[in-house]
Amino acid sequence: MENIEKIKQLRKETGASIVECKKSLKEAKGDLVGAKKILKKQGRSFVAQRTQRETREGIIESYLHPNKKIGVLVELNCESDFVAKSEDFQKLAHELCLQIAAMNPKKGSLLSQPWIKEETKTVKDLVSDYIVKMGENIVVKRFARYEI
Fold this sequence. Notes:
The protein has 148 residues and is α+β, with helices and mostly antiparallel strands. It is built from six helices and five strands; from the N terminus they run αααββααββαβ. The chain folds into two domains: 3-50, Ubiquitin-associated (UBA) domain (Helicase, Ruva Protein, domain 3, Orthogonal Bundle); 57-147, Elongation factor Ts, dimerisation domain (Tetrahydropterin Synthase, Chain A, 2-Layer Sandwich), CATH 3.30.479.20. A hairpin with a 2-residue loop joins strand 3 (114-115) and strand 4. Helix 1 crosses helix 2, helix 2 crosses helix 3 and helix 5 packs antiparallel against helix 6 (123-134).
């Protein structure tokens, strides 16, 4: 696989910038798995820096199960209105609604649950991936699940 193709693939799979993908591939000597590990380690450091920042913007996302017997509301906060309006941020909010509808988490346990679409990841890992991708702190402020 050509180096440019590896960079494209790594970017597609991780959402990291082209520059970061190129650097991590170089450091991993062209190994995609190694480059992903490097990016993940850098991402954790980035997330740790961002989580101290205030989140005053955001959205409220809703989900109503097709059977009309389960409904979910999620308040997801971020730092800027620009990010709150982005397609990626709204996708994350929707994913969180699906998680809550399926797993019925208790308060405080949502982030520690395995993500329903990829059980090797927790919901916290999912949110952290979006923090890295969006470049802002993201917080699940509150949620409610209703079921008949």
